[in-house]
TrEMBL record:
It comes from Streptomyces capitiformicae. This is V8-like Glu-specific endopeptidase. Residues 33-53 have a biased composition (Basic and acidic residues). InterPro entries: Glutamyl_endopeptidase (IPR050966), Peptidase_S1_PA (IPR009003), Peptidase_S1_PA_chymotrypsin (IPR043504). Keywords: Signal. The keyword Signal applies. Residues 26-53, 108-127 are annotated as: Disordered.
């Protein structure tokens, strides 16, 4: 049974209030990731002092790419033979000052992964299409109400792009996590491409929700990126997304999730410490029928939005099956557009704390709903691999 309007409103109000109270005060199938160094020392060793860890320099050299050329713009070469695509190929050396305020404002939403609006979406187990839920602006300052939520910037063959992401806790580094949850299509192009480049996470982007005019007139860096920029030095996406993902979702849509390990441009404080909290991930994969309400957070960038404001949608989830052979996805009514991709979906756990349970993956052309993957055993294995590889680092 669907919520009545009044029931949905009450549930949403309580849910949002709980998230606001805990966002800055939280305690803290197959997987794909780059070949892992043995230790923090080997990962960060920089014998020639050029600012590029030797493990990254060696990997670029392996593919015939000069480190200096890469930093000076060689990363713009998207030749298929040089577009690193395999799980082990991820490289993302820091290029200081690349993502200035203007470049971040000009970044566009990626080609949206869309679910086809035909009978195929009703194969398997699908509930009726939900009524649209109008996205609501998050309260400012964002760091006090939804601190773990932020924007992900990256470069693709089409130019600079944006997605959304969430700081999640690290079981092997309690209270000091450097992990960010997002969608697979925000870090890897899927079956027809490879890893995107210059991936950074900016938590609580545009913290005060300033307008485009205000930002264009100039504003302090701490307003745009109150907790700084965090470069991804490791990434993991599902094998299913890498093998079958596409701009239309494809066979990888039900596995469209990824985890980033990030580091600051300077300093040694963890992301969780800097932001003030992180959210646990719920890998139990409950049926949509077992969940009263889910909330999706993100920075929609396609019209009528401009990517500068954080929004949220709250709804009771339904089920969406793209194919009987694929896991059923969650679906909620929501008017957020491209740019919200990768943003976390949250539910209230039995202990009254919010948990990340999914992320925005696909939606229809008319932007009336969103769907996200269930995070089950495969997602947990991906997370565990990342956490174990970087535990204590």
């Amino acid at each position: 049974m669907r919520f009545s309007h009044r029931q949905r409103l009450l549930a949403a109000t309580g849910f949002v209030a709980a998230l606001a109270l805990t966002a800055t005060a939280c305690d803290s199938g197959d997987t794909s990731a780059s070949d892992k160094p043995d230790s923090a020392a080997s990962r960060t060793a920089d014998k020639d002092g050029d600012g590029i860890p030797d493990v990254i320099a060696d990997k670029l050299q392996e593919y015939g790419i000069d480190v200096d050329d890469w930093q000076d713009g060689g990363w713009k070469d998207w030749d298929k033979d040089k577009w690193l695509s395999e799980a082990k190929d991820f490289v993302n050396p820091v290029i200081e000052d690349l993502w200035d305020a203007e470049r971040m404002r000009d970044a566009e939403e990626p080609a949206r992964t869309l679910s086809p609006q035909d009978a195929s979406v009703d194969q398997g187990v699908s509930d009726p299409v939900p009524a649209p839920v109008q996205a609501t602006p998050e309260r400012t300052p964002y760091h006090e109400n939804a601190g773990p939520v932020g924007k992900i910037f990256f470069d693709s063959p089409e130019g600079s792009m944006v997605c959304s992401g969430t700081v999640v806790s690290d079981v092997n580094r309690p209270g000091r996590s450097n992990l960010v949850w997002t969608a697979g299509h925000c870090v890897h192009a899927g079956a027809n491409g490879g890893w995107y480049r210059n991936i950074v996470f900016v938590p609580a982007y545009n913290d005060l929700g300033r307008s485009e005019e205000e930002l264009a007139a100039g504003t302090a860096a701490e307003d745009i990126a109150p907790f700084g920029q965090w470069w991804a030095d490791w990434a993991a996406a599902s094998d299913e997304w890498i093998a079958g993902g596409s701009g239309e979702g494809g066979a990888g849509a039900a596995y469209d999730y990824a985890v980033l390990h990030v580091k600051p441009e300077s300093g040694d404080e963890s992301l969780e410490e800097r932001v003030g909290g992180a959210l646990d991930v719920d890998f139990s994969g409950p049926s949509a029928t077992e969940v009263d309400a889910m909330g999706a957070w993100g920075y929609p960038a396609a019209p009528p939005y401009n990517g500068l404001t954080m929004f949220r949608c709250i709804d009771r989830p339904g089920r969406l099956s793209l194919d009987p052979s694929l896991p059923t996805m969650y679906r909620i009514g929501c008017t957020m557009t491209g740019g919200s991709s990768g943003g976390g979906w949250f539910r209230m756990a039995d202990d009254g704390e919010p948990r990340l349970i999914s992320n925005t993956s696909i939606g229809p052309a008319d932007d009336t709903w969103l769907a996200g993957p269930k995070l089950g055993e495969g997602a947990k294995a991906l997370y565990d691999d990342m956490s174990t590889s970087y535990g204590g680092q």
